[in-house]
Structure prediction request, 354 residues.
Amino acid sequence: MASDTIAGTSPHLPEPSTPEEVRAAAEAFGRDARAVREQIDRVMVGQGDVIEQVMICLFASGHVLLEGVPGVGKTLLVRTLAQALSMQHGRVQFTPDLMPADITGTTIVAEDDKGDGRVRREFRFQPGPVFTQLLLADEINRATPKTQAALLEAMAERAVTVGGKSHPLPEPFFVMATQNPLEQEGTYPLPEAQLDRFFFKVMVPGPSREDLHQILQRTATGESPRAERVLDGARLLSHQRLVRRVPIAPSVRDYAVRLVLSTHPRTAPFSTPMASQYVRLGASPRAAQALELGAKVVALLEGRSSVSTADIQRVALPALRHRLIMNFEAEAEGVTTDTVVQNAIATLPALMER
Prediction:
């Protein structure tokens, strides 16, 4: 059973204050992160980069969008992560007829029998499936924009407003949404403004030859390993707060800022020639937040106490790829957002005078 109740929030562990306590908290972070990764690796075959990027989102308190063709393990990854975390989890299968109230909940008329022939009627809020801690939004692009917006509002505000009353969501709250890039009929692609709400967009590739052999070995012979619970909500919240305390040098932060500005067309002296030619709208300020927080998680995962420009570069693709809007010339020539981001990483100097 999950350790946290659905109506409230996870208990907060005391904040580390002395250098020794901070060091001990960082070591605890590393142990818990390795334990979660070990449990996922017991079940998942391959997809090392995908698992790492999802864990970065988890510890940075950001939501993740997984894109990949059917059968590459998107749902299995979410289910395995839920097994490794001692938290409540749920799943919503998005369909064109799904309504916002089917996700957020609705107000109902409840009747209480007083036992003396009188019946008391009152309005009560019936929570929807979004009132959980780990939510799988499966095939989010199959729902209408109105329903998509209801979930994305909950993701941004960490609360749901129904009937003029705000209902806070449990803590921690983490959404993993999936979408299939191939099917277009009956889908409603997420608008760019809504995509910006996702901390990372992670591309899930197909399995390699060796990975496929291993998948068949497990699935065709009856092997069904299951992850064990190794991390609860209170400790996860403590780790998420620790991430924000990781120091970052002004020059490294400036590199993240310049990397975001380099994706903006015709923004001298930062924009790259490729961005000026192919990008219609560059990355938002949320992209800079994702770069810094994601890099802080990377530093902690590697046992370091500060962030480097290499950490920023490591998270640049999943943090930026869904935040760029390309122009018609890019579409005509097949230039992708990944190409623009990779070009920016390759050409942007590590230091620049302010």
Summary: The first helix runs from residue 19 to 43. Residues 246-354 form a domain with the Helicase, Ruva Protein; domain 3 fold (CATH 1.10.8.80). The longest strand covers residues 105-113. The chain has 14 helices and 13 strands.
